[in-house]
Amino acid sequence: MKKILLTVFAAAMVAASCTKESAMKESPAAERVTLGICAPVEKMTKVAELEGERTVNRIQAFVFKENGDIDAWNVSETDEVTVECSAGQREIVVVANAPDIEGVFSLSDLESRVSLLEDNSLGFLVMAGRTSMELTASSTVVVPVFRRVARISIERIVTEFKMDQFKETDFVIKGIYLTNVAGDVPYLSDGDPSLWLNKMGLEVSGAGLFCSGEMSMSLAPGVAYETAHHFYCYPNASEDSFGQEWSPRHTRLVVEASIGGITCYYPMTMPEIKANHSYTVTELKITGSGSWSPEDSVSPSDASFSVDVQEWQDGYSGKFEI
């Protein structure tokens, strides 16, 4: 059987395409094929890019035969890897920044594997991509990889209390976090989460992917807090619910605060969360006392906001007033 040596490169590129010249240098004597992988962790349009969000630190490359059986696999702690495989029609799958995926004997095996949110960190976001092609001694391919996480951000918080008793009362931001967080997702598709984090409230303490950690930020009336906070979660397409008993529901961005020493919450319900999308609250305007629970809906008379959904591909961006 004819054997082909594939050299795989992975890089998170802002450009929308890659050229053959940059993707392939062929050595006919060795019958090598350079499989150039550009990861258009897509060009940010209106979305500000954060350092590390398109970094590729390690890759795993899988090559599958037409019948779905594994043909070749390799892993590298850099952005390139060489895979020796046979010629023919092949499905090529690349997973970036993930722990080793072992025991894969077929494409269906890999499609059933699940990524955990805890395996992500800024600068090490899990990504995946796939393509099909006929591999020959002169083949080259671009396999874009896309982040499996979504990003949820809040850029500005300001108080504008309508009732006099709140205007002179100390207002302190105690924390910002996500609730009802999907904690897992298949590497190659979207599916219903089997793991949920921060169910209906703060369960995970300390700063992390979806929690600011403890804060103590006093806001004077009309003075905005303009330090942006960025959080990451996996896709969540669940129907929303405000039931007292846990059930899958929309992800919420919660500002926990105190007014005159009394804890209150300003939950902002996100739309459907999709992978590789950003959801940005450009401003939360607080005008009232909020709610007694992160799961209680807040009256529009207490706060206002909107969510700008943009693909990071884009998700959502907008203002909230509560």
UniProtKB/TrEMBL annotation:
From which lineage does this chain's organism come?
Answer: Bacteria, Pseudomonadati, Bacteroidota, Bacteroidia, Bacteroidales
Quote the subcellular location field of this record: Fimbrium
Q: What region holds the Major fimbrial subunit protein N-terminal domain?
A: 44-138
Pfam families in the record: P_gingi_FimA
Q: Which GO terms describe its cellular component?
A: pilus
The UniProt similarity line reads: Belongs to the bacteroidetes fimbrillin superfamily. FimA/Mfa1 family.
Top-level division of the source organism's lineage: Bacteria
Write out the entry's keywords from A to Z.
Fimbrium, Signal
Question: Under which name does UniProt file this protein?
Answer: Major fimbrial subunit protein N-terminal domain-containing protein
